[in-house]
Amino acid sequence: MSASLLRRLPTTLVNRIAAGEVVERPASAVKELVENAIDAGAHRIAVTLKEGGRTFISVVDDGIGMSADELQLAVERHCTSKLPDDELTDIRTLGFRGEALPSIASVSRFTVTSRPAGADTAWSLEIDGGLKGDPKPAAHPAGTRVEVRDLFFATPARLKFLKEPRTESGHVADAMRRLAMAHPAVAFRLESEERALIDLAAANPSLLGGDAARLERLAAIMGREFADNALAIDANREGFRLSGFAGLPTLNRPTGQHQYLFVNGRPVRDKLLAGAVRGAYQDFLARDRHPMVALFLEAPPEMVDVNVHPAKTEVRFRDAGIVRGLIVGALRTALAAAGHRASTTVSDAALGAFRSHTGYSAPLPMSGGGNGFAMPRGLAEAAAQFMSPFGAPSARVEMPSGEIAAGNYPLGVARAQLHETYIVAQTDQGVVIVDQHAAHERLVHERLKNQLEADGVKRQALLLPEVVELGEDGARRLAGRAAELAEMGLVLEPFGLGAVVVRETPAVLGEVDIQGLVRDLADELAEMGDHLALKEKVEQVCGTLACHTSVRAGRRLTVEEMNALLRQMEATPHSGQCNHGRPTYVELKLADIERLFGRR
User: Is the pLDDT of residue 97 over 60?
Assistant: First the structure.
């Protein structure tokens, strides 16, 4: 085969290659066009789709608009108004590459119509698969309208990779929601097949205040439960500022898709930022649960490179350590300040469970026509069993000898223990139900961490050392970390091939399931890898130790022990959730209970 001569590619083909980087699907085109509208100072942005954006996209804004000459430049590659000093290290806008409009226009039938504020007429420019026409006068209000028809008609191979219209519309909606979160003062609307998918009114920061306006916008997108259970974040470090809101650990989700991260107003999906969030919450959530957060990082332009990805979804920091430390520190400070607070969704779920199990939300008339109320079947059967001479209900009521005022304590005063598992306490505003094992697990976890930071975990020697069979790999891992484990209160040594012998355990654990504890630690070490020091993963190791505490479900507690547990919870950070993100208690307000019984 003979060698081909070098030649310059046609402009239309160059633009189509660029489009492959910038315009992956309809959502990519919408994101670029909406970012342009925001940079143009728009207060209202409306997007319309047909067939998920495959056949039609329209983006209309009320921004500053463009003249006929500016229109012609706007659709040329590498033409932009967003680098006034031609300095790529000082980027203060959302779009800056100068590729979006020519790239989109090269793979579609493209029309842009615009009118600057105060101008007598608007101008319209059409481009068909990269072939540009001349500007023509048009009728249009101040602002800009971009219409994209038959996206990818000029690159049929890309069309084959598009999903169903509903899926593509969902991607567009996600891109718009992320931009809307960062710009609450702008109104956003998205219509698909004449149905509104997004309709967000502009928040007024001057009336609500900046944080309140942002939280109102986040509530409209992430749900009211997030707003009700969000912790405000505001921290600074070496020129970086982190703001936004983070959900309580008890408000968690099975995936990380409800974590929204922004850098200088740009929505980004960045591994460094996501890893920092995971690190901040690792002490409070199981590995398969994820917090809900919306965090906004403001960075000096010269300290962040936003030019590392054509779609502008990734960033690179000059000093990643500062950013990670800022995020982890700010989130942990907010979580510590939240104390033992658990999310309101926990009590809402409890009330919902009551209603679903009783089958009604208000008292029901008796079927016999009397003036009383019917008892649901399940409750009636339980009552009948209770009344029978053989009934053995697992509930104890113990009143303290010296009566204590419930209003003196946030978690109230213990009144009963149910099923040797749950403590029922009375507060001045309602009832608190505590999972005694989950609560004690958190208390032990915090105690272990405090002892480790001070002078090492106190140990207790076993009267009879216990041998644990693990297999050769597990035993080797534990034996290799014996010195570090001893600092954490667990003294063990190799015992033949594939086993270890445990001689001392952390005193704070009391009686402990040694077999289960050692096997869990071996599994944790296998997942961490041999290169990580245990002190780097102290929360995870302490969590595994604490999970094997002595106050477990099924242990009968005296009323003094119950009240002591409540007082320790009130004095311990993060006691509203166990080490896996589950709530340690549920609070039911008196008003909620009265509604259950139809009193309100």
Answer: no
Structure token digits, residue 1: 């085969």
**CA 120 and chain centroid, separation:** 48
Q: Is 112 helix (H, G, I), strand (E, B) or coil?
A: strand
What is the DSSP secondary-structure string of 181-227? HH-TTSEEEEEETTEEEEEEPPP-HHHH-HHHHHHHHHHHHH-HHHH
Sign, CA dihedral 533-535-537-543, equals: positive
The lowest-confidence range among 13-17, 28-32, 316-320 is 13-17
- Residue 326 is inside which H or E element, if any? helix 320-337
* d(C-alpha 445, C-alpha 282), whole Å: 13
> Tokens 């650990």 identify what position?
249
| DSSP-derived 3-state class of residue 25 | coil
Beta-strand pair 293-298/259-263: parallel
Spell out the residues 6+ positions from residue 65 whose beta carbon is closer than 8 angstroms to its own: 40, 114, 115, 116, 117, 119, 122, 142, 143, 144
**Per-residue confidence (pLDDT) for residue 343, from 0 to 100:** 61
Own/partner pairs for 527-533, CB < 8 Å, 24+ apart?
530/477, 530/480, 533/484
Portion of the chain with pLDDT greater than 70, in percent: 74
Mean pLDDT of 7-36: 74
Q: What is the pTM of this model?
A: 0.64
Tell me the torsion sign for CA atoms 410, 414, 419, 421.
positive
pLDDT, tens only, 334-382: 988 876 666 666 666 666 666 655 554 444 333 333 434 444 444 444 4
